[in-house]
Amino acid sequence: MYEPFAAEFEAHARDSAYNAHYDRPAVLDLLGDVTGARVLDAGCGPGLYAEELLARGAVVTAFDASPEMVKLAGRRLGGQADVRVWDLERPLTWLPDATQDVVLMALVIHHIEDRSAALSEVHRVLRSGGHLVVSTTHPTSDWLLAGGGYFDRAPVEETWQTSWRVRYWRQPLEAWCREFAEAGFLIERLVEPQPASTMAARHPEVHDKLAHAPGFIAFRLLKP
Prior knowledge:
Distance between the termini: 33 Å
InterPro entries: Methyltransf_11 (IPR013216), SAM-dependent_MTases_sf (IPR029063)
GO molecular function: methyltransferase activity
Pfam families: Methyltransf_11
Shape: globular
Strand order of the largest sheet: 3-2-1-4-5-9-8
CATH superfamily: Vaccinia Virus protein VP39
Largest sheet: 7 strands, mixed
Keywords: Methyltransferase, Transferase
Protein name: Methyltransferase
C-alpha cells in the first residue's frame, strides 16, 4: 500500500505531528528499557522506530511488505539490523517459536485484513513473558471522521496528503481488545497519548487538537 509513496512518507514522518511528536514518543515510552532485548519491528516502514531501538541497545529484526520501505530502512539502519521484505498477512515462517522478547506493531495493525492470524503469529514468536506493543487509530477518532455508528466494523479508504491512497479498518475499542485476548495476550497498559511538548512549537494547531481529543491509542500486551 505504501510502496508508491514510500520516499514521500519517510520525509513526512521524520518530523510530522502524528508520527514524530505523537505516536513515536508514546510507543517508545511503552516499550521501556530494551537494552539487549531481541525486538521485532513488524511493519517497520522506513526504519524510524528501529533506528531509535538500536540507539537504545536493542537487537533489532525488522520487516515491511514494501520493498521500497525496506530499502529506506536498510539505508537508515546501516546494516545494524536484519531487515527484509515480508507481509504480516503471511505466516512468519522464517522466525522460530519464542525467539523474540518484544514485538512492535506501530500504526500497522489497522491495515491488516486477517488480524487474528497476524496476532497469532506474533504470539508464537514471542517468548513467555514477552510483550507486544501496538498502536492504532483511536476508535472515537475514526468514528468522528468517518461517521456512521461508533460500533461499526468496516474498511475505510481515504486519500492522505492529497495523493496517498490508503485502506484501513475501523472498529470499536471492545473489538480491538477481544482480538488481542483471543490471540492469547493480556493488556498490561492502555495509553491514549498526549502530544509531546515538542509538537507545540512545530505543529501548534495539531497540538491543540490532540491535547483535547485522542487521535491514536496504544497498548502494551503481555504473553503470559
